Amino acid sequence: MSKQMNRLISTNFRKWCYNLTGFNQYGLRRDDCLAENEDVKEALKRLPQHIVDERNFRIVRAMLLDTNKRLLPKEQWTKFEEDVPYLQPIVEEVKKEREEREKWNSE
């Protein structure tokens, strides 16, 4: 099988898995679903306010839709190609800083 074919299968499989999770049917993005531990809370503080507001809107809308047992119309679902990480890179940075701080304090 060619590399191009493998990539196509991989991409199609990833899209299938993405749609199977269901959060996109509520208009959520992958990073909206991160558990809010201390690292995520710190990362949220570092985001511009308009991005935090957009995130909060998506989460509240999803909770309201779920409460009413409804989904968004399919054209409003979050698309795999458009769901780029906005929080995960900052969370990784916060984790590295915390681990470095813990290491520094333990020495």
UniProtKB/TrEMBL annotation:
Location of this chain's protein in the cell: Mitochondrion inner membrane
Alphabetically ordered keywords of this record: Electron transport, Membrane, Mitochondrion, Mitochondrion inner membrane, Respiratory chain, Transport
Entry GO CC: mitochondrial inner membrane; respiratory chain complex III
Membrane topology: Peripheral membrane protein
Coiled coil: none
Superkingdom of the organism of origin: Eukaryota
Annotated GO biological process: mitochondrial electron transport, ubiquinol to cytochrome c
InterPro entries in alphabetical order: QCR7, QCR7_sf
Assembly and interaction partners: Component of the ubiquinol-cytochrome c oxidoreductase (cytochrome b-c1 complex, complex III, CIII), a multisubunit enzyme composed of 11 subunits. The complex is composed of 3 respiratory subunits cytochrome b, cytochrome c1 and Rieske protein UQCRFS1, 2 core protein subunits UQCRC1/QCR1 and UQCRC2/QCR2, and 6 low-molecular weight protein subunits UQCRH/QCR6, UQCRB/QCR7, UQCRQ/QCR8, UQCR10/QCR9, UQCR11/QCR10 and subunit 9, the cleavage product of Rieske protein UQCRFS1.
Family as reported in the entry's similarity comment: Belongs to the UQCRB/QCR7 family.
Family annotation (PANTHER family): CYTOCHROME B-C1 COMPLEX SUBUNIT 7 (PTHR12022:SF0), UBIQUINOL-CYTOCHROME C REDUCTASE COMPLEX 14 KD PROTEIN (PTHR12022)
Task performed by this protein: Component of the ubiquinol-cytochrome c oxidoreductase, a multisubunit transmembrane complex that is part of the mitochondrial electron transport chain which drives oxidative phosphorylation.
Name recorded for this polypeptide: Cytochrome b-c1 complex subunit 7
Species, as recorded: Camponotus floridanus
Source organism phylogeny: Eukaryota, Metazoa, Ecdysozoa, Arthropoda, Hexapoda
